[in-house]
Design brief:
The chain is of the alpha+beta class. It has a single domain, classed as Tetracycline Repressor, domain 2 (Orthogonal Bundle), CATH 1.10.357.40. Helices cover 41% and strands 12% of the residues. Strands 1-2 form a two-stranded antiparallel ribbon. A two-stranded antiparallel ribbon has the order 3-4. Helix 4 crosses helix 6.
Length: 156
């Protein structure tokens, strides 16, 4: 069970679509520009720069996700995937406009609620109870705090 506050943002759609890793915005990591955070995340499952560039060239985040399923997985992936996600999400919100939008969520809890069963990066709701680890939501909130401190901005 994952405790969710009443005013939490629990859907990364519509006005909050920008919180999703599938949101199309350039993310530059180590000299490769990815079309979304999802592209970057899938590419970083491998250490092979050629495979990373191949994933970067995919037209959509869904295609990048599919391509990420067939890369040579780096041996330390399970140990580094959360810190990798943190770096990618931080790079995404280096975009000034997106950073402002993230800051505008104030102190609201961010929960990557989903219907596809991802209980690691997000949560699913079962009979009114949220279940999952919500690592993406936690990372977004951490990046928001880092941005707030970096920009010297108070929260709403």
């Amino acid at each position: 069970m994952y405790p969710v506050q009443p005013d939490a943002i629990t859907s990364f759609r519509n006005e909050h679509r920008f919180l999703s890793n599938f949101y199309m915005v350039d993310v530059d990591i180590d000299g490769i520009v990815y079309a979304s955070a999802e592209h970057a995340f899938q590419a970083h499952k491998t250490l092979d720069r050629r495979e990373r560039r191949y994933i970067a060239r995919q037209d959509t985040p869904a295609q990048a996700k599919q391509a990420g399923r067939s890369v040579e997985l780096r041996p330390d992936w399970e140990e580094v995937k959360r810190s990798t996600m943190l770096g990618i999400v931080a790079a995404k919100f280096d975009n000034y406009e997106l950073g402002c939008r993230l800051l505008a969520t104030g102190k609201r809890q961010l929960v990557e609620g989903n219907t596809w069963g991802d209980r690691y990066w997000g949560c699913v709701q079962r009979k009114g109870v949220w279940v999952g680890k919500n690592y993406l939501g936690r990372i977004l909130m951490r990046v928001r705090t880092l941005l707030r401190n970096e920009r010297g901005i108070g929260s709403k």
